[in-house]
Amino acid sequence: MALILISIASLSIISYLGYRVWFLAGALADSQEYVEALESTNEYMYSRIEKSYDAMKQIDRLGAFESEDEAGTTFSLLNEVITELKDEFDGSSEEKK
């Protein structure tokens, strides 16, 4: 009788542990997919910021936008924001290395 109870208890414990392993493996796979999606988004955002930064430099290559008028002030503010974003992303990519 004791052997039957020990066998049932062992089978129950093994079944529970098997379920937990299966569940945790699924959770780990989901978290890896999430991390990959975040990395992809970060790479996309960095490339867009870099393209915007290059476009802003190309637009104002001759210094045509003077900060005295409204368009020049707007351009300067946009350029400042994009430059700060690019510097922040460049800094974080250097920290990883």
Write a brief caption for the model.
The chain has 97 residues and is mainly α. It has helices at 2-59, 70-96. It is rod-shaped and about 95 Å long.
Please tell me about this protein's structure:
The protein is mostly helical. The protein contains two helices and no strands. It has one domain (2-96). It starts with a helix and ends with a helix.
Provide the gyration radius in Å. Answer: 28 Å
Q: Give the domain tally.
A: 1
Average pLDDT figure: 82
Roughly what percent helix?
Answer: over 70%
Helical run tally: 2
Strand fraction equals under 5%
The tally of beta strands, per DSSP, is 0
Rough outline: rod-shaped
Q: From the helix content, strand content and strand pairing, which structural class follows?
A: mainly alpha
Distance between the termini: 63 Å
What pattern of helices and strands is seen along the backbone? HH
Low-confidence residue ranges: none
For the sheet with most strands, the description reads: none
